[in-house]
Amino acid sequence: MSEFIYQTSNLTKFYGKFQALKDVNLSLGRGRIIGLLGKNGAGKSTLMRCLLGFLNHKGSVKLGDMEIKHRDPRVFEEAAFIPDVSGLDDRLTVRQTVEYVRGVNPRWNDSRAQKLLSVSNLPPQFKVGKLSKGMKTKLYLLITLSLDVSFLMLDEPTLGLDIAFRKEFFDTILGEFFDESKTILISTHQAEEVEHLLQEVIFIDHGQILLHEEMESLKSRLRVVTLPSNREAEIMAHKPRLISRTLGAVSAVLDAEVEISGASYGRANLTDLFLSIVGGTDETV
Question: pTM for this one?
């Protein structure tokens, strides 16, 4: 068995003349929780859809030992996907939805499904169209986690959900899905929400991978340096991508080797790290 569950080689995707992905080379290991961060339009969703075979592309995508082509049904023997919209049939009840997926998917784990359903507070007789956004997402999550797959992709899965349900969402995934043989790839703009979960992080911008690194390695080699405002030039001499100014102080993320007399140092959070490498705009990470 390969140590990598997914590998891409020179993965490239055009929409007409627009190049959404540019020679993406990634190796995603087993038993990892990986964050995929980028600005709006950076290529996150396109990358995921190429990994799933939803889009035609140039270059190579391998899932285990399988070369994945456009609309390749074999991908769902090993991978599952939770998008930012559920795609559930509003006409079916919760029970009918579960029964339908059970009947058509050979990877269905009925004992796990019944366990999840029993603690979900989902009303089995309710039609999907009558469920709230949170309840629809919970149903989609229940169905997805009831499949015996090795790779789970989440594309802005908690968009529009309240804080309590977002925590429940990730707790359920960690408790019911993740183990050392499985991998989760999370694409999100909510960096602070997933930072504590991640073992690796990928930064993508304009269709190119700018960074793929272990979280601890990244946080060890970069740190926040803060000086009084009247010493800003000393920070600017190191050419930071982004600088933060507060009352009487100025800060930037710099290499951990940088030492400035009288400066204070702090551990950078994931948003700081992203903006220091990719650069900032009016959009959020």
Answer: 0.91
